[in-house]
Amino acid sequence: MPGIRVAAAQIDTVVGDLEGNAARIIAAYEEAEALGADLVVFPELTVTGYPPEDLLLRPAFVAAAAEALEKVAVRTGRAAAVVGYPEAGRDLWNSAAVLAHGRVQGVYRKQLLPNYSVFDERRYFAQGTESGPLFVVGGVKVGVTICEDSWSPTGPIVELSAGGAELVVNLNASPYYAGRLRERETMLATRAADASVPIVYANLVGGQDELVFDGASLVFDESGRLTARAAQFREDLLVVDVEVRATFRRRLLDPRGRSGGATLPEVVVSDARVAGEPIVARVEPVLDPVREVYEALVLGTRDYVRKNEFSDVLIGLSGGVDSALVAAIAVDALGAEHVTGVLMPSRYSSPGSITDAEELAANLGVRTLVVPIEPAHAAFEEMLAPVFEGTEPNVAEENVQSRVRGNVLMSISNKLGCMVLTTGNKSEMATGYATLYGDMVGGFAVIKDVPKTLVYALCHDRNERAGTDLIPSAIIEKPPSAELRPEQLDTDSLPAYDLLDPILQRYVEDDRSIAELEDEGHDPALVRRVARLVDRNEYKRRQGPPGVRVSPKAFGKDRRLPITNRWPG
Q1: Active site residue 418
Q2: Catalytic residue among 33, 87, 141, 147
Q3: Best CATH choice for the domain 3-272 from the list 3.10.290.10, 3.40.50.150, 3.60.110.10, 3.40.50.720
Q4: Residue 540 bears catalytic tag
Q5: Residue among 280, 243, 250 nearest 38 (CA)
Q6: Is the full-model pTM beyond 0.85?
C-alpha cells in the first residue's frame, strides 16, 4: 500500500543559538533517518528558535540563520527534512525549507501571519502568496504549511488538498496554555476530515522567556482520526507510517475534495521509500489539567534558568503556600542540589511559619540559609522615624520588611551567582498585593500566571503524586498571611480568593467590563473594588520579572494596557 514514513521532531531550541540549533536538527534528522524515515518535520523557525522577535531586524542575524540552514542542508541524504527559518529576499518571510541530498530542494512561505495574543509576526514578516508547490517524497505528494496556516478552514490546507496533496505537514511553535492541546486536536481533526488529507503536526517544545511550548506533536488520518501523539513537555521523536491510498479513495467519493482546486506544481525531492518493518504508531497519554499546568511550570522554569546560563536558584521561604509551591517546582526543574531556601524571620513571623519552612526544606532536600531581618528592620525604622513622625503606621512600615528581604535575596544572589525566583501568584499580581522592590524582586516569577486557588490545587496534586505531604499540610491548611504586622491575614486586604479569582478571570483574561460582570451576578461593590485594584497596579506589573504563561491571557505580552489610563472599566 502506498505510504510514507514521517518523523515529527519536537526539539527544544534556544533563540539565537544558531549553531546549537543546527546541531540539534542534524542529530534528530540522523536518528529519524536511521529509523527509516522518508520525511522529518521540524518546528517553526527551528534554525533561529522561536520567537526571535527583534533579532529578525538585524541583517547579520538573518544572514547567519541562512548559513546555519545551509550547514543542515549539506548533512541531509535520502530522507527529506522540512526546517523552519527566516528567508530573506526583497522582504523577509517565515519559511520552511525542504532539504534532501545535501541541498535546499524548495521553500514554502507562511501565508497566515498571526498578530494577536503573544504573536507579532506582521512586525517582521511578509505574507506568502502561494500554497504550493507539492514536494514529492518517496512517491507521495506532500504539502507544507506553517502554524497559523492550519487554523483557517478555507486556507492553505484546503488549497493543498484540492491541488493534489496526499499528505500535509504543519510546522509549529504553538505556545501552551491550559486546555490548548484539546483545542489543537479538535481543530486539526476537523481540518484533516474537511480536506480529506492526513496531517502531521510537529510542535516546538521548551521554554522561551514567559512562553512554554508543550510539544505533543500530532498525526491525523484523512478522516480526522488521531493516529499518533508525542509526549507533552519533553523532547520526542514521533515516527509514524502514513498510508495514502485511503486518502485517494476518500477524495474520489467526496465532492468537496474534487471541486475547484488548481493542480499545483510538483518538486521531486527524494526517491521511493526504503521498505522496512512497519512501525506501530504510539499515542502518548494526555496529562490531567492540573498536572499539565505543573509540568509547564517545571519546564518553563528549567529552560529559563538554564538557557540564561544559571545553575542555581534562591527562594525566600516564608512558610507560606506560594513559596512552598515554587520551591517544589524548582526542585523538580533543577534538582534539590541547585536550590537554596532563605529564611528571613522578622518580629512578626510566627513560630509555625519558621518550622513549616524548615520542614518543607527538609522534605525537598534543599539547603537553607537563615538571615534574621530584625537588625535591618529596626535600623530602617530608626532612620525613617523623623520623616514618619506624626503619622499613623500603615503599609509604608509593613513594606520596609519586604524590601529588606528583597535586598537580602539580591545581595546573596550577587555574591553566589544564583537567580532569585519570586513567589507571587496571579491573584496578587493582579491586585497589587505585592511590594515593589520587595517580594517582587528577582529573575523569574514562576507562578505569576497562577491564581491562588490553582496554587492550592497544584500543591495537593504534587503531594498526591509524592504519596506523602511533600508540602507540609500545615502550610496548605493555614490561612494565607504576609506576616507584616501582628495577626495579619490576606483577607484583611483582599476578598476571599474563591470570590476574587473568578472575577479576575473574567476581568483580566476574558476582558469583561464591570457592567458585564455585574450582569453576571457578581456583587457590584466587589467587582468595582477588584477592577480598581487591577487597573491601579499596572505600573507594578510592568516592573516585575517575567514568569511562565499558563493561561490564555497572562500579564506581559498578552495584555498591554496603558499605565496612564482613565477608562473606568
Answers
A1: no
A2: 147
A3: 3.60.110.10
A4: no
A5: 243
A6: yes
